[in-house]
Amino acid sequence: MHQRNYMFVFFSVQKALFLREMNSKFSTSRLGVFWTFFQPFMQVVAFVLIKMFIFGRGDEHFDYAVFLALNFTAFNMFNGILGKSIGAFKANKALFNYKQVKPIDAIIAGSLVEIFMTGIVYSMFLFVGYYFDFGMEGKNILMVGIGLVWLIVFSFSFALVVAIGDTFYKSIGKIVKIFTFGLMIFSAVFYPVASIPPEGQAILLYNPLVHFMEIIHGSYFHALDTRYVDYTYIAIWTITLLYIGMWLYQRLEKKIISG
Amino acid sequence: MTLPDGNIGILGRNGMGKTTLIRMLGRIEFPQKGRIASAQTFSWPLSLSAGFIATMNGRSNVKFVCRLYGKSDKETEDIIEFVKDFAELGDYYTMPINTYSSGMRARLNFGLSLAFDFDYLLIDETLSVGDASFRNKAKEMLQKKIEQSQILLVSHDMKTLKDLCHIGLLVHEGELHYFDHIDDAVKAYEEINKKAK
Questions:
Q1: Contact B67/A19, CB-based, under 8 Å?
Q2: Is B161 exposed, middle or buried (0-12, 13-18, 19+ CB in 10 A)?
Q3: Residue A3's pLDDT is what?
Q4: Does A58 have pLDDT greater than 70?
Q5: pLDDT in tens, A125-137
Q6: B142 with B183, same domain?
Q7: How far apart are CA A229 and CA A193, in angstroms?
Q8: What is the domain count for chain B?
């Protein structure tokens, strides 16, 4: 057997890990396929119903159901990528027996799975939205896309740092879990920043996820805009996390493999 | 130290670093000092704590490893059939790995590694598990295999070592001793064991 090209090895590993994860998602039960896609869908429906019953129809100039679906799915992707990273190296330990599988491959493949699932869920919402004639018309779809891609890079960087940290200090995973639990409420998933009083806004805007959500829904709805987004602020977050992640990773990769 | 091509048997008492040596050659453990360089390809280290995904069945695990090595669909099908025939797991082939006994895992792992063409197979004790008939079969297959490729074998079974290898390495107290002939390595190993008593 001859030595193989680096990129070819990388793609083989990614393909194998991706298909393994898909396989385990769908083969656990007959309803596996159904629930992976239907669960986020139902959550959005539940939130919309709760909102309408408690607060009435509201006076927004945009379709609240579409707003929720857009934000919620994006936030779920962040949550999924981060959640997968906790304990990821330990869970994939057996695979490091094959030298071509590097720990970071597990994080990349995990993120790819989440991105794929997010794509499917968005497609479902698009289909349902057009079929039932929701207010689906987007203002700046390109910017929404850029926001999502940026969010992916941010989530991946965060996930890498957490995965490495959690491998050496178990408490890091626990702390991250506690923090992300309540994070959704403070991430402008259920409301635009514009609807919050100014004192609240100042605090909320420390949360980088708020900026991502604002890019996404601010670019989508004509009634909203991206004036609260501080691009430098989230760029610093992303670059810092990515740098710390990469730095830790190249220092500790061997330790994680043979650990 | 430079090792010549050939089938190499590795001996040593427990805890002296035989498994670590094998794992370093498989590039999943790394030397604190020095470097290992080779133009040859090595298999994954075949050990009792094999690298399988416990919740997936044997067949899917075989498929997974084929994908890791970038095999085409046709080759993958062939390998799946080959391992099925070789490992003789019957219905267990399509049951999760965590239902397997250690002997069954070893069979699967060994069969799988035979399906690939490496320059060197790294075998850590896996031959000593399994029942007599499987051990014979494995040895036979290995003898056929070493016509094309080579092996690095860790074993406490002197007869197997002598049959399959002709170069000997003895790991003892942090040092690696090289022997041109496996027989000399076995003698040196028996010396050490006598002293320990």
A1: yes
A2: buried
A3: 62
A4: no
A5: 999 888 988 878 8
A6: yes
A7: 10
A8: 2
| Residues 6+ positions from B40 with CB-CB distance below 8 Å | B119, B120
ipTM of the complex: 0.87
Maximal C-alpha separation, chain B? 55
For chain B, give the DSSP string. Answer: --PPSS-EEEEE-TTSSHHHHHHHHTTSS--SSS----SS-B---B-SS----TTSBHHHHHHHHHHHTT--HHHHHHHHHHHHHHH--GGGGGSBGGGS-HHHHHHHHHHHHHTS--SEEEEESGGGSS-HHHHHHHHHHHHHHTTTSEEEEE-S-HHHHHHH-SEEEEEETTEEEEESSHHHHHHHHHHHHHHH-
At B25, the amino acid letter reads: L
**pLDDT at site A259:** 77
CA A117 to chain centre: 10
Residue A114, pLDDT score:
94
In a domain, B48, yes or no: no
Question: Tens digits of per-residue pLDDT, A173-210?
Answer: 999 988 888 898 899 998 999 988 999 999 999 999 99
Could you tell me the pTM of the whole model? 0.89
Residue B97 included in any domain = yes
Asked whether B167 and B7 are in contact (CB, 8 A), the reply is: yes
Nearest to B163 by CA among B188, B135, B190, B189: B135
Query: Same domain for B13 and B103?
Result: no
> Taking CB atoms and an 8 Å cut-off, how many pairs form between chains A and B?
66
Q: How far is B28 from chain A (nearest CA, A)?
A: 6
CB < 8 Å to A15, chain B: 67
Provide the domain limits for residue A82: 39-258
- Write out chain B residues lying below 8 Å of A20, CB-based: 53, 56, 60, 64
Radius of gyration of the CA atoms of chain A, in A = 20
Q: Which of A83, A79, A100 is nearest to A17 (CA)?
A: A100
Whether B27 and B70 share a structural domain: no
Q: Looking at the domain assignment, is residue B52 inside a domain? A: no
Tell me the shortest Cα–Cα distance from B184 to chain A, in angstroms.
Answer: 32
Length of chain A as a residue count: 259
